[in-house]
Amino acid sequence: QAVFRFDTGALLEQVGTGKESLNFMKRRIQRLAAQWASAARRLDDKLRSHRRDEKRILVHVGFLTEESGDVFSPKVLKGGPLGEMVQWADILTALYVLGHDLKISVSVKELHGFLGVPPGRGSCPLTGALPFDLIYTDYHGLQQMKQHMGLSLKKHKCHIRVIDTFGTEPAYNHEEYATLHGYRTNWGYWNLNSQQYMTMFPHTPDNSFMGFVAEELNETARLNIQKSKVNNMAVVYGKEVSMWKGKETFLSILHRHMEIHGTVYYETQRPPEVPAFVKNHGLLPQQELQQLLRKAKLFIGFGFPYEGPAPLEAIANGCIFLQPRFSPPHSSLNHEFFRGKPTSREVSSQHPYAEQYIGRPHVITVDFNNSEEFDAAIRDIMKINVEPFLPYEYTCEGMLERVHAYIQNQDFCSPEARFPPVNASRIWQGSPLAPFMLLPNSSVLTWASNITSHASWPPLGALQLLASLQGESCVKACQDAGLICEPALYRFINIKEAFNALDFQCAGLESEMNHLFPAFSAEHAECGLQQDPLLFSCAGASIKYQRLCPCRDYRDGQVALCRDCL
Ligand code: UDP
Predict the structure, then answer these.
(1) ipTM beyond 0.90?
(2) Torsion angle, CA of 222/225/226/230, rounded to 10 degrees?
């Protein structure tokens, strides 16, 4: 049984020293310690009646190893990316606070030591049992584990979770399919269950949403913020000079209305890209950035970096986040940054999570190329007052709740999870009922509850079956119904009866490896079932198909969990 820990002192010792990245993570763990402790107390009360098994967990942070080149650590104090370190610090804290037996590795040598691979025997396969229940790593770490575990990686890979900022869609993850159909990238093709990839934001529900936390304000801090807000103060999102290049027009429009602050890293001379009217503080320690955000009214992004933590921190400190809409959206097809990333996701603004999950009045997304719209947005912002806001899923309690639920319920190792029945009919056969039924007074199809409740997480009761429109993905179809696509429930709808329940008349029924299946092709009246469970995918759309979608409900502010998922 796992026991909550309320003091992170021992974790700090475990994290080690010697790199700026580790120092940054330790400062963060220390700074948020009290917040984690009170969240742990609340969750402890909430989960009193739940069994929580203590797991043996290895965290191997591949991108910080010398063997991967560690390009991040030397840039920590020079404006380099910090989002990943924010996330890893929070993952370590969450796992530790939840009471698991944690080992941390930031070098291949430590990895070997923990896995019990004899030194000097590069690719000696790990014989016998894996000494961990779970391994959290990243794409670099996965590669290192492959090199050093050899063939035994395949045997143990169901225990692995890959922290993957932007996400990996099933079509890119499936080696054979990716190779045959042009989805092969530098990153994908590990043939994992796509939910083993864990993302920074809830991008595609094909992956699990890991997230991170932002600082929460107590009542006193909230009141103080209201008093100390400076109505005409703006902070620019961008700690690296390159993010300011070519932004003179926006900056001069903004400067007509507001006093502009920046936190751009510079060595000795003020960078020419940052105009003289900007008050540049240089790169600030996280804590001081929070103080600056508490005073500011506006936090403004100029399009890069994509999807970082800072906008959530700004909104949590009572700022309005103004950001550019991308039209057409940025994706791996049209933008250098996303090229080669294993996702077809279309990024509609600098921070789609802020746009879609938070929105007005906290987040305003406009076309920056239209100066009038841009100017009007700034005028509006100066007129409105907003309260600090942080979605529950980005609070410490929210992250602990979600990680707890994953650890106790996600299972990619059992034979059922590894080889789910392609034809789920056998689960309900023998019952006189069809597996799907309409909810009373509604058009929603659910799994008939009186047919064997089959072990599943999320539970089968959460399943709501929908058909997408032609050309629409299941991500979108579920979203439009106020639900979320749940890939773990695909196996229950990959059956002929699901087409019947949705009134599709199948002239033919085929089974194929196609990441859009199960789907109905209107042109040929063909019904297509999915042949390979690894290809069940919420993402993906084609004008040729209406897709069958397993949707589910979700908790307020916690999209990763269905109402009955705890
Ligand atoms: N940050 C900081 N000092 C600054 C600017 C940013 O400590 O002057 C921190 C900020 O608090 C956030 C982190 O950098 O948690 C990552 O921010 P960003 O959204 O810029 O994402 P990145 O591109 O670094 O991954």
Answers:
(1) yes
(2) -160
